[in-house]
């Protein structure tokens, strides 16, 4: 476990610092996920499963991309795009209003996920 995870986190007062902390937690989560995949990749049995998972994820991405392209070109797609833009603006405003309430909970949840993932990694590496 990193020193950063063991140190008590001071409360930040600026929104930029707050979201920087959230970003760092996502970065730590990404690093932990990468370590877990590397540990799993070392197993021959898991290599096949991981390759199947990768192929499945790539297929999902291709299918979603194609569906989005098809839909975006249609009149319905244009209407959806306009509505999505309005929804995105509403979401942006709502996010700005609640960012300080969400950030501490998000950081705590990400730390818990990272801690649990680290335990799994430790067990896999043993």
Protein model, in words:
- This protein is mostly helical.
- The chain has one domain (17-125).
- It has 4 helices and no strands.
- The longest helix has 51 residues, at 75-125.
Report the portion of residues in β strands.
under 5%
| N- and C-termini, Cα separation | 15 Å
Q: Tell me the number of strands.
A: 0
Sheet with most strands:
none
Task: List the secondary-structure elements in sequence, H or E.
Answer: HHHH
Mean pLDDT: 77
Number of helices: 4
Output the radius of gyration: 20 Å
Structural class: mainly alpha
List the helices and strands and how they pair.
Blueprint: H1 3-6, H2 15-41, H3 44-73, H4 75-125
Helix pairs in contact: 2-4, 3-4
Keywords summarizing the entry:
126 residues; mainly alpha; flat
Summarize the structure.
This protein has 4 helices and no strands. α2 packs across α4 and α3 runs antiparallel to α4. The N terminus is likely disordered.
């Amino acid at each position: 476990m990193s020193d950063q995870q063991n140190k008590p986190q001071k409360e930040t007062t600026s929104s930029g610092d707050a979201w920087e902390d959230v970003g760092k937690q996502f970065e730590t989560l990404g690093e932990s996920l990468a370590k877990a995949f590397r540990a799993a990749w070392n197993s021959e049995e898991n290599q096949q499963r991981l390759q199947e998972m990768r192929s499945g994820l790539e297929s999902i991405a291709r299918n979603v991309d194609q569906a989005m392209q098809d839909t975006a070109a249609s009149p319905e797609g244009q209407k959806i795009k306009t509505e999505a833009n309005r929804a995105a603006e509403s979401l942006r405003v709502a996010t700005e209003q609640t960012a300080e309430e969400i950030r501490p909970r998000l950081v705590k949840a990400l730390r818990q996920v990272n801690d649990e993932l680290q335990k799994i990694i430790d067990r896999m590496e043993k």
